[in-house]
Amino acid sequence: xxxxxxxxxxxPLIPLIDFGDQPLGNGFLNSTDFEREYFxxxxxxxxxxxxxxxxxxxxxxxxxxxxxxxxxxxxxxSMEKHFKAFSDSxxxxxxxxxxxxxxxxxxxxxxxMLKNFVSSGIRHLGIEPSxxxxxxxxxxxxxxxxxxxxxxxxxxxxxxxxxxxxxxxANVMCHIPDINDVVRGIKILLKPTGVVMFEDPYxxxxxxxxxxxxxxxxxxYLFSALSIQNLFKDYGLELIxxxxxxxxxxxxxxxxxxxGAYTVDSSVDEIxxxxxxxxxxxxxxxxxxxxxxxxSKSDLINLxxxxxxxxxxxxxxxxxxxxxxxxxxxxIGPDLIEYISDTTPIKHGTFSPGMHIPVRPYEFFxxxxxxxxxxxxxxHAEEIMAKEQExxxxxxxxxxxxxxxxxx
Length: 408
Hints:
A hairpin with a 6-residue loop joins strand 2 (39-46) and strand 3 (53-55). The two termini are 40 Å apart. This protein has a seven-stranded mixed beta sheet. It has helices spanning 61-64, 77-91, 115-118, 131-139, 151-161, 179-189, 203-209, 225-233, 266-278, 283-309, 321-330, 362-367, 381-387, 389-393; strands at residues 14-23, 39-46, 53-55, 102-106, 123-127, 144-145, 164-170, 190-201, 221-222, 237-245, 251-258, 314-317, 340-342, 359-361, 372-375, 397-400, 406-407. The chain has 14 helices and 17 strands. Helix 5 (151-161) runs parallel beside helix 6 (179-189). By secondary structure, the chain is an alpha/beta fold.
């Protein structure tokens, strides 16, 4: 969907970085699908009125989220702990009614967060457009409907279930191009004392860490507190708290409510001030980001080419959506990276989007360790490093690109 205007303000976008032709970030495919693989131009732009950093073009939601969506949240133990803590923080807060509380989660995936409300007997509803993961959620007893969330959907939910105490989302809101429709729906769903709590990769961290791989087809936006405050205020909803998270290499949890329902926490003014100092309201900041992205690309290509010339074996570790951006932007294929190791069964035997690097089961990595592993799941580095002590002890080395290309 070509979009030369800001999806929030309607003003022309300032073009920033062109990452060239990119496939679907999570579009792992079979060899028979190579010739008909879908590509689009992935460029990002910025609007100085809405403060929104966004893709200029994006595939349709139906192309990205479907019955064969290749990501199950519960494959990560660290994320399971994170969502347990997220749900516990809501259960322990002042936001849930004492009588028959009702919680909704948008993009509940396989039920990794809502199952914590099931176990507490709290009324809930998951909304998940990808049918395969929605089925997985329902199999856990998480009541889930499989559709895209809209204002019309919100009206149906209220008619059937009543209004919600809390509307949750994690790594989902940044996926939705028509986010204005979603915010209208949220306003309908929330009780007068209800809250919105959602978290997504944080623009401030992406700029600071040069983690440009957070930009891919599903991430139509990279949010800041500035852009979220601006987006929701037109619908009578205000930002009342922000809580930094370590997930995904740096995320921010936003808490919003009907204007005047709660006192605004001091954290909101503090982070807005920090963002203004960082320059997240200025296009020049993103021009400097562009130069650092270009340097990261050349540094990574040079390193891999040099190592391969020395006869070293290099593999990728974790077949992530983020890796799709890196591999295709840098033009890295099976000539440099032998295969990508991954623990997700649905990806085994497939090939990486665009560059067609084979994806192999984790057992390949364990039984025949390479000299170097490119850590595509760098945001899970702590969990992975603890798991891979044997690889490190045997002389295996890691390559990361955040915040700079480096060998560990």
